[in-house]
Amino acid sequence: MKKSILVAAIALAFGATHAYAQAPRAENAFLSQEDAAARSARVSNVDYALAFTLTGKETFSGATTLSFDLADNKQPLTIDLDKATITSLTVNGKQVAPQYNQWFITLAPQDLVAGRNTVVIAYQRLHSTNGEGLHRMVDPVDGRVYTYSHFEPAAAHQMFPVFDQPDLKGTYQVTVTTPADWVVSSTMRESGVQDVENGKRWTFPRSKKLSPYNFSMHAGPYKVWEDNSGKYPMRLFARQSVASQVTPKDWFTYTKAGLGFFDQYFGVPYQFEKYDQLLVPDFLYGAMENAAAITFAERGFLYKEEMTAAQRQSLAGVIMHEMAHQWFGDLVTMKWWNGLWLNESFASFMGTLATAEATEFKQSWQSFYSGAKQGAYAQDQRVTTHPIETPVPSTANAFDNIDAITYSKGASTLKQLRHLLGEEVFRQGVHNYLVKYSYQNAKLDDFIGSLGEAAHRDLSGWTKEWLYEPGVNTIAADFSCAGGKIASFTLRQNAPSAEMPTLREQRVQIGLFNLGAQGLGLSKNVAVTYKGASTAVPELKGAACPDLVYPNYQDWGYAQVQLDKKSFATAQASLGKVDDPLLRSMLWQSLWDGVREAKLPLDAFLKTALANVPAEKDYTLLGEVTNKIVFSFDYLSAMGPSAAKYKAKVGAQLEQMAFAATQAAKGDNNFQRRWFSTFLHVASTPVALGQLSDILSGKLVVPGLNVGQDLRWSIINRLNRYAYPGSEALLAAEQERDKSDAGQQAALAATVIRPDGRIKEEWLGNIGDLKTKLPFSKIRTAMGSMFPPGQGALGELSAELRLSNLSKLDAAAGPVYMRAYAASMIPASCTPASVKRLQAEIVKSANLSAGTRRSLLVTHQEDQRCVAIKKAMTVF
């Protein structure tokens, strides 16, 4: 009998009326779900009064007054606080000696009371430099110091003592002392700013109830723009040295549109009174939905020249994504980290919907299909696929399964559920959920239950099929014709494998297309709800026999489309005859799927691309297809010497096509920059690299093309990647010219990417030194630049060492470091030997953390894919 069961049995035998004692909390940096549940069962009505003193130096000090109700004082209670120096600890008015292990404080039962407790903790701590906790950055341009907080998934305790779990919501009252020229943003708008000795004291009123990871506080000498033209006051913050790269008008336009859209769609007004957005340096992710003080990574949203349409769409989409979280995530919050997928999936779905309906980017669902959704399909076909809903035993595992399945498969699933239930039914279910659980924590069943109630149907079977089973199904049209008419039509559904046998219910549209004088036109489409292995579609009987059938027309469903033989041939031969951009995108994707599955030779795909892409007039689709061309070029580069002859030949053709299109697009800035970006990413011959060098120097002028600072760095990076003569001197000169943080990062990337063994060795040492004083942002940049496709021989010099050290590094480094390292530093060289070596490491390194092991498995599978694509080619 297990010890816990035995203890419980004894308690029952003696008539005990309270729960048996919990095992002590594990002495490590993470919080288990079990310990979190035990704590939230005892603690309620949490209030924080937070006082911070910020000087701009490497350390800060704080004092937290934590008040809460406690159900009993029969057991110790822990408060999370990471790597701080505690200067005093008072529990219910009594000063006590801290029992503190650098991860959490343990309060003794005798110091606590059943009822209201007050704990006051004064402490000091180093600012973080890895993007979590209270991050500090010194601007290399002017020496100004900036700080910002980032707490997801569970890093609030890297800034202040806290019950760091989502289901212990609390209120936050904040006081911050800062240098005189600083400004402060938090969940509430400041109620007072006073002059004090050597600075200012900012006071913020008590907030509404929030989970710790949704609270934030950011401080520094930020430039601030304000817009009060809408229902809610809006502000935008950025570092002084990059303020000229910010276009406040775009930010405020999309923010105002989004707030209006969500207020109406959700039927619940925005709850947090004001709306601040901050561009911050060294940020780990794209953005973070802190309540009323959202942070955005500078690298994704700062541009030294006018934004392209694609960049503005990206900005609008991320603003909308984070804004959706203000309701779904901040107002109603998951109970534990296994609900993080629903947070992100819902925000991805709603962010795309809002961008499509509230901005000029009406084609946002097409962009979602070709970008985010394809990422989900790729992830869902990997050996590491997993259900959308997965257990998270500890905060150490919170981000293990945060990937394209979490964000994009989940969003796609919600999109098709909206089609299945009906748009208004879905919206009503969301509204009911937000109203019922406002300022509370909720679980998946609560959300699905609200949708089911609105639809008057039981969604438990749907939930099991879609959210608790992994894998993506394939659908295909099976039809026969007689006398030029369809005689029979069945929609077939296949499960991914015997290990993943689930067949799902879903509503899709089937589109029939015929070739005619006007191109490939839609002749008929019908909506069908299918389930099981086969679904007859009698509505199509008697329709004209099609030249092409697309069984997920307009992309309602989440399924891999397998074109029948006739439709595939039509797609390959008639792409230029398809008027509908979304259908054209889907057909291009079918061809690319054929490449990735080693069924369509890569050289055949490139031949089709060379014949069709120059005539593409849809800006969004052009970006999709040119991205696939770049991926193709990277595959050829990774294949090594055996592919060199074909790569040189087709590479020159791609260069010429892209450069000619760049010149031809001089009247359209968006198209010209998209084509030049393609040229930049395929340039590898001396001729093309020489053209880039001449463009940089001004010797070659492309009419209409503005060669600004961002583009200069991109060109310098490409020239250094191939060690073009004089490129090292160009790098040094540009580094001297651009002293900004972005310039330093770009210079580092261009240095590390050089095919120079000495440089690689030096930076391998820096990357492997876990005690380095270099900012993590620089280490991460170096990781991503070390071994680009085409530098396989250099990568092989350290491949064995990197693999042999993987387990040791994984055990010593934290998850933030390993997410970056494992994504770019595990060696793969597109050879059978490399595949075999990775397989051996998989067997050998059974004790890797979940995240690193996943990266190892994915690297192995993608290396296998590269070998298969190489083998399928017909030109060598």
TrEMBL record:
InterPro entries registered for this protein in UniProt: Aminopeptidase_N-like_N, Aminopeptidase_N-like_N_sf, ERAP1-like_C_dom, Pept_M1_aminopeptidase, Peptidase_M1, Peptidase_M1_aminopeptidases, Peptidase_M1_dom, Peptidase_M4/M1_CTD_sf
Cofactor dependency: Zn(2+)
SUPFAM superfamilies according to UniProt: Leukotriene A4 hydrolase N-terminal domain (SSF63737), Metalloproteases ('zincins'), catalytic domain (SSF55486)
All residue ranges annotated as the Peptidase M1 membrane alanine aminopeptidase domain in the record: 255-466
Catalytic activity as recorded in UniProt: Release of an N-terminal amino acid, Xaa-|-Yaa- from a peptide, amide or arylamide. Xaa is preferably Ala, but may be most amino acids including Pro (slow action). When a terminal hydrophobic residue is followed by a prolyl residue, the two may be released as an intact Xaa-Pro dipeptide
Coiled-coil spans in chain: none
Enzyme Commission number(s): 3.4.11.2
Leader sequence segment: 1-21
Keywords attached to this entry: Aminopeptidase, Hydrolase, Metal-binding, Metalloprotease, Protease, Signal, Zinc
ERAP1-like C-terminal domain ranges (all copies): 548-857
GO-annotated molecular function: alanyl aminopeptidase activity
Domain Aminopeptidase N-like N-terminal intervals: 48-213
Pfam families: ERAP1_C, Peptidase_M1, Peptidase_M1_N
Family statement drawn from the similarity comment of this UniProt entry: Belongs to the peptidase M1 family.
Descriptive protein name: Aminopeptidase N
The gene coding this protein: pepN
